[in-house]
Design brief:
Length: 551
């Protein structure tokens, strides 16, 4: 046994076990996140039952049974429920009853003894609305301009046909509002700023004013045409509606313009549910959010996260590499360099929120304000770069991850054998040529390692971004079809902040919980994809440099 300990075998087994345990924990977290998030879009059966209220009246309940848990009977009695049971414990059910505009809440707990038998009629419909959440009930009729055109069994096919038409019109309206009208509004604003700039410089002539007026009139005409088109489409989309019987026998009339989707989950086959699931998952990836980010998609957050990370990588890589090259190849060893290295190492441990405060104070209030004063005076007092935006967020994260790139690059440069430098210099190459053509290619895998670590950290940061550019809902993307195409001054959405907002700021906690897991899983996937791309690039560089490293 003593010899076994002296050989170091226990430590090998201990470190191997620690690695295995770490992998198990990582995979468990990913599996739990996927299990909680990916089931969100699978059509769930809609149940119908009765509930005995405190006054003894029986009401009808319709909704999805989400949870069942054991609860103390005493606790239920203290809440005002009358339970005729001698048991100490019973069960209660969390039912997603929807119809928030009628009941006031989406989810509610109901004591099991006061509920009747759960039934699952095939004609129950689940309606996904663009506002007020889901609606559950029995489809009674479909109307056109207030007149019933289909009822009974014929109502469902008529609803599907008219809902497809309504959604097509809704997408057309949305496209005109976001792209066509957005383009006209952007052109009008640029025209206004151009005119004001000339006025501030005292260069605005009468001919210029006339030209600006003509351009403004032309843009106003385009806007009027688009507005008339939208009004016509809104009149067409408001034509149809459905009549549904919800809880307590109440009938409601819902315009199809406010409905995103409608299904009969109890009457769907596995193939139909799978198709519906894939459709909703694609919508989650590519659509805009709605209902306080608890419905719809998260494409703006995905786009903002990826764009911010790419901008950060473009900024931090040259800065970190140049700093490491100077400290390793050019600076003379001494107290100053030692102090700089200590400072770089200490910066790696500074809390990220401190970088956010620095970015807000220096980049936004100082640098951005002066940029506005020098180059965007016509926009004042409305700030351009003097307010948080994706540029300042990327710069802030570049400074936050700069120590990682510097340290990794320095380590790579230190591993390059001195004989390679001496051989290059002996052949007549200058120090700059030796560095550029020999040393840096060999150290490039280490540089990529620093970039990988920087991307992994920056993609998940949230605290500094809350101060320098990220918002709950961005009206437009930082990249669009309007010149100059990349708008670095705009605010943006981020997956990390989206998780925080939906998880902790949402008024509808139960509805938001699955989206928190789904968004977290997507953020992990994006980070993994970015890292795999960088790792692949690093490995290719390493393979190309193998022959040179052996010289």
């Amino acid at each position: 046994m003593r010899k076994w300990f002296k050989d170091g075998n226990p430590w090998i087994w201990m470190t191997g076990g620690a690695v295995a345990l770490s992998l198990v924990m990582v995979y468990a977290v990913v599996w739990m996140t996927a299990a909680q998030g990916l089931v969100h879009w699978w059509p769930k059966p809609v149940a119908e039952t009765t509930f005995t209220e405190r006054d003894g009246k029986n009401i009808r309940l319709i909704g999805e049974v989400r949870k069942r848990e054991e609860v103390s009977v005493i606790r239920l009695r203290e809440s005002g429920y009358t339970l005729d049971t001698q048991d100490k414990f019973t069960h209660r059910y969390l039912i997603k009853q929807g119809n928030r505009d009628i009941t006031g809440i989406d989810f509610k707990w109901y004591p099991g003894p006061l509920l009747g038998e759960f039934t699952y009629p095939q004609n129950l419909i689940a309606v996904e609305r663009r506002e007020w959440g889901h609606l559950y009930g029995h489809l009674k009729a479909v109307k056109e301009n207030g007149t019933v055109v289909a009822e009974g069994e014929a109502a469902w096919p008529a609803l599907q046909e008219r809902l497809a038409r309504s959604n097509a019109l809704f997408k057309e309206i949305l496209r005109i509002e976001k792209k066509d009208i957005g383009k006209v509004n952007y052109a009008m604003e640029r025209l206004r700023l151009k005119e004001r700039k000339l006025a501030l410089q005292n260069k605005l002539s009468a001919a210029d004013s006339t030209e600006f007026a003509q351009q403004r009139e032309q843009l106003a005409g385009e806007f009027s045409v688009l507005q008339e088109r939208i009004e016509k489409l809104r009149g067409e989309i408001a034509r149809d509606s459905l009549v549904a019987e919800v809880m307590e026998g109440q009938q409601v009339d819902v315009p199809l313009a406010k409905i995103a989707d409608a299904i009969m989950p109890n009457d769907m086959s596995v193939l139909q549910k799978t198709s519906h699931y894939l459709t909703k998952f694609v919508e989650f990836i590519f659509d805009d959010p709605r209902e306080a980010n608890t419905e719809g998609g998260i494409f703006p957050a995905i786009f903002g996260t990826v764009l911010m990370v790419l901008l950060m990588a473009v900024m931090v890589t040259p800065l970190g590499i140049m700093a490491a090259i100077y400290m390793r190849e050019y600076a003379k060893p001494g107290p100053l360099i030692r102090i700089i290295r200590i400072s770089v190492n200490n910066l790696a441990g500074v809390p990220s929120i401190v970088y956010g405060v620095f970015g807000l104070g220096f980049f936004v209030y100082f640098l951005g304000h002066n940029i506005d004063q020098l180059f965007y005076a016509e926009s004042l007092p409305a700030p351009v770069f003097g307010s948080p935006g994706i540029l300042w967020a990327s710069l802030t994260l570049a400074i936050l991850t700069l120590p990682v790139v510097i340290v990794a690059t320095e380590e790579g440069l230190s591993r390059v054998p001195s004989t390679i430098r001496e051989g290059s210099l002996a052949l007549g190459a200058t120090k700059a040529e030796t560095l550029w053509r020999t040393v840096l290619p060999i150290a490039s895998p280490a540089m990529m390692t620093g970039l990988i670590l920087a991307v992994a950290r920056a993609a998940g940061e949230v605290a500094p971004l809350m101060l320098v550019g990220v918002v709950k809902l961005a009206p437009s993307l930082p990249l669009d079809g309007n010149f100059p195409f990349l708008h670095l001054e705009r605010k943006f959405m981020h997956l990390g902040f989206h998780i925080y907002d939906v998880g902790f700021q949402s008024p509808n906690v139960e509805a938001a919980r699955p989206l928190v897991y789904a968004t977290a899983l997507l953020l992990v996937i994006i980070i993994v994809v970015l890292n795999l791309f960088a790792i692949r690039l690093r490995n290719r560089m390493r393979e190309r440099m193998k022959g040179l490293e052996g010289v």
